Amino acid sequence: MLKSVKVRDYMTRDLITFSPDMSLFKAIDVLLGNSISGAPVVDADGHLLGLLSESDCLRGILSGSYFEEAGGTVRSVMTDVVESIDADADIVKAAEHFIHKGRRRLPVMDEGLLVGQISRRDILRAVKAYNEHGAPK
Question: Which of 45, 41, 50, 39 is closest to 105 using CA atoms?
């Protein structure tokens, strides 16, 4: 059953992350260059500080243009209240979170450190694998 499948089994491990002191325009270059819509913001020890999304970047640019200031840092525009999920949680819990909270992805934590990210697409991959290999047909 899917409740026995852990988040860690389907999470993305090789994440692009941002430093809080990175310039906003450098972060935008990274998002565009990697065709991603957001990424975690971590400190030097790997502790999750927030998330930077395309929306955060747009908000920062609009705010900067209003005040005739360009740029800023990731820290100045990131979302710092971040929901996450434990690596050992089952993927059903992650799926429920996506449905009820409207999120696309969740940072995955293990012993207080960021170890990956799980997305709605990752959950669909798990369901497909389960259906192909373990579900009654």
Answer: 39
